[in-house]
Amino acid sequence: MAAQTTVAHRILQFNEVLAGTTLELPPGFAVINPFNGPQKKRVREVTTAFYGKYYGDDKPRHLVLGSSPARRGTAVTGVPFEDAKLLESETGVDVDGYSVSWPSAGFLHDVIRRYGGRDTFYADFVMSFVCPLGLVKTGPKGKEVNCNYYENKKLLELLQSFLVESLEQQLSFGTDTSVCYCIGSGENFRFLSKVNEGQRFFEKIVPLEHPRFITQYNRDREEEFTEKYLSAFRGQDD
């Protein structure tokens, strides 16, 4: 990318590459691509407004990487870990009916608020995914449910090169590679760490428990995990 381009421009260009991406998957699995789906025009409006607002500069930022977009969340809106109603108020684009509020967004936005607010947080971080396209699998009764890239050995095998290439492309956002934050301290962290051993994308990767694990199974420890996130983002996790 040319030096004069903004972080917003680079992220939106990455999304355009994703729009033209096709992936071979095992039977029973499918991709949800918000950048080339039935709502792609709306997604383009939302992402252009959002990234233009918070990333219209050339400042290096750290990556915060989840595993992959949820089918009723980011895989619809195109903006990682963003609640639809918050996106609507932030961008002025009507996204009502195209996504739902979900616990992960609520937890993370409490972290963002306590970090110093959206302007402060997004000036320091870009939120994204190891697998930037949504994945679903069809259950025994024909219902599609979310799945992660690491849930199936054949799935991971087929996605491997796409995942590594996507990580490398996301470094072109102007990423500060001194530390990366991994949302998901289990399989997502293990895979990202293994890739990093070979590729040396980041000097350090800090694992953080997934908000769903916190809000669904450890609600009574939510304050503890919030403080853990804040300490990590402020560089106090050592």
Quickly list its features.
238 residues, alpha/beta, Uracil-DNA Glycosylase, subunit E, 3-stranded antiparallel beta sheet, globular
Topology:
Layout: H1 7-19, E1 29-32, H2 40-54, E2 62-66, H3 74-77, H4 84-91, H5 103-115, H6 118-124, E3 125-129, E4 134-138, E5 144-146, H7 153-171, E6 180-183, H8 187-199, E7 205-208, H9 211-217, H10 222-233
Parallel strand pairs: 2-3, 2-6, 6-7
Antiparallel strand pairs: 1-4, 4-5
Characterization of the model:
With about 240 residues, the chain is α/β, with parallel strands linked by helices. It has helices at about 5-20, 40-55, 75, 85-90, 105-115, 120-125, 155-170, 185-200, 210-215, 220-235, and strands at about 30, 60-65, 125-130, 135-140, 145, 180-185, 205-210. Strands 3-2-6-7 form a four-stranded parallel β-sheet, with helices on both faces.
Q: Helix/strand/pairing class, anyone? A: alpha/beta
Strand and helix order: HEHEHHHHEEEHEHEHH
- Fraction of residues in H or I helices: 40-55%
What is the number of E strands? 7
- Name the CATH superfamily classification: Uracil-DNA glycosylase-like domain
Q: CATH class, please?
A: Alpha Beta
The strand line-up of the biggest sheet is 3-2-6-7
Strand content: 5-15%
Rg result: 17 Å
Determine the N-to-C terminus distance.
Answer: 34 Å
Compact overview of the structure:
The chain is of the alpha/beta class. 47% of the residues lie in helices and 13% in strands.
